[in-house]
Amino acid sequence: MAIQQAADSNFKEMIQAEGVTVVNFWAPWCGPCRMFAPILEEFEREAGDSVRVVKVNIDENPVTSAQFQIMSIPTTLIFRNGQPQYKESGILSKGNLQQLTASPEQL
Question: Is this entry keyworded Ribosomal protein (predicted)?
Fold first, then answer.
């Protein structure tokens, strides 16, 4: 499954999926966001269908960004069965993403 782009209009539906959804808030002008993008893409390729990855451009989607109080980017939120479980700003390593998205039984 490829990384999906969310908008204010469809964000809620995108995160309501069963399982784990990783949401990355970013902007094209953000240097750290550009550094994080290849890590996120590699994580998504390796995770396959077990994790959904969604990106939200904060400039184009201010309602969603405000709803989750995004004050700096990149910011990553982890949702499990539509419920927010974790939030962190900055660049995460692939290992961090794998650990954060592991099923509760694996932790």
Answer: no
- Beta strand ranges found along the chain (DSSP E): 4-6, 20-26, 51-57, 75-80, 83-89
Length of the chain, in residues: 107
Domain residues for the domain of 20 are: 4-97
Per the structure, how many domains does the chain have? 1
Of 15, 30, 56, 73, the catalytic one is 30
37-92 pLDDT, tens digit per residue, is: 999 999 999 998 889 999 999 999 999 999 999 999 999 999 999 999 999 999 99
Asked if residue 77 is part of any domain, the answer here is yes
Is 104 part of any domain?
no
33 tagged catalytic: yes
